Amino acid sequence: MKALVLKDLKQPYALEECDELAAGPGEVVVSLKAAAFNRRDYWITQGMYPGIKLPVIPGSDGSGIVSGVGEGVDPSWMDREVIINPGMDWGNNEKVQDEQFHILGMPMDGTFAEQVVVPVSQLHDKPQHLSWTEAAALPLAGVTAYRVVFTQGQLQSGQHVLITGVGGGVATFALQYAIAAGAKVTVTSSSEGKRNFAGKLGAVAGYDYRADDWGQQLVAEHGCPDLIIDSAGGDGYRTLLEVAAPGGRIVNYGATAGPPAKMDLFKVFWKQLQLIGSTMGSPGDFGAMLLFVRENQLKPMIDKVVKLEDANEHLETMTTSDQFGKLVLEIA
User: Which CATH number fits domain 143-277: 2.60.40.10, 3.40.50.720, 3.40.1280.10, 3.30.450.20?
Assistant: First the structure.
């Protein structure tokens, strides 16, 4: 089978011919039709991710057809169209992942290949309204956004949600989910194009977070958000504390700008704010996310699709974060 292999850090993927895969007990082989990039894949190439072991076939997201089943697996899985839940060994506590939790594509080989082996427990039927590329774009970012918006963020219809840094996979899913749930959505981005595109998807306003007064503009024009979804942190976190509604929630699923230089705890306790962390999602979140996507007939926003052999184009795109939505690989 053909596969992309990461052999060294800060180097392009190498397209190689690898051995065909076989399923062990409780496992299946999925012949992949499409796979998708996540920010995680880029961080791994840069050595900015824990537990890196090379060489590895990267990739967490994938959709395809079951082409092999191992001992103990129901043979009815054969030839079914599936997507893969990339979150492995979450554990029994819905509130937090277990220490053994890991994600497909590091350290175990992932989906940037013609085949992948996964436990049968990670399989779900592909939503029929999604194409192969759309289905591949959904899993990791989709479940992360679902947990942020609903499980941790507890968003309700009619509430105001602010999503920072719109354009990335998780933020874009969060935008789609919140709109489908009947929320009023505002966004931030340094890109006017991304702010405008968010408006076409249903956001009522977009703000350039580089402007000193963007928070004042937001509150004056649309009021204080009940829920803020953020992946940046950094010094801009100060403004989030200022604009959050009394009793509001701020959910963080990343900290790309690093920790805030200082935290105004007076605002936190006086406004009765809830500061909440979130990452990936449990198997329960994944199932609920698929149900929500099916019921609302949602489709992932895809920025660009390339062939497996052209995957390094997506790495280049990720160095500048120019994309709006997901970067997808067409495999077969």
Answer: 3.40.50.720
